[in-house]
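User: What would this chain look like folded?
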Amino acid sequence: MRFLTTFQIADFADTLVSLFTAFVLGTLIGAERQYRQRTAGLRTNVLVAVGAAAFVDLAMHLTGADGAVRVISYVVSGIGFLGAGVIMKQGMDVRGLNTAATLWASAAVGSCAGADMVAQAAALTVFVIAGNTMLRPLVNAINRIPLNEKTSEATYYFKLAVAADALPDMRDRLVEKLEGAKYPVADIDVVETGDDLIEIVAKLVATAVDPNELNAVATDLQHLPGVRHATWEVSTTD
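Assistant: Here's the prediction, encoded as structure tokens.
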């Protein structure tokens, strides 16, 4: 049996240290995510860290540092698919980006542990947890600052609620009015809202606007036949 001839207690102990380190550090990162009730919580972050450590440790024992570098590159790209699974679009808001970034960081922690860089893995864990906790008050303080539409970069949407029979004409008129106000349209979506009403949602190319100009466009459109409501809104999460 090949296992009996190749098994070395020192190598096995080294692997245990790598996996245990990844497990403990992944637990620390995941516990904070679990406390926040995020999509990827304790178990997910632990499994990502331990899995990354296992792959890197395996490459280290088989082919040395060169093999570990190749495996790490695959871990970096592969974790992107897992991270994409926790990113969700709800209406015009995108949620889960921070959770996906945390999974990416957990993979980095596991990779460091698998490469026998235990101190570096611990240091990275401290920075990841600090980013998810200590920066929260700063984020909240910045978010409470009133938005200045003329200077802030965001995504702007113009919404037009129209009768179903007025849709073809109003769609063209909306694009025409916005482009006339120097706000070209990047994309248009049509949503059925019920009661024989359809909402036309135009995403603007501009990342900063003059509120008075968009209000003027809304006022002009609201007086057209078939238009029930015209408004615009801003999203800072895209």
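The first strand starts at residue 88 and ends at 90. If you want, I can go into more detail on any region.
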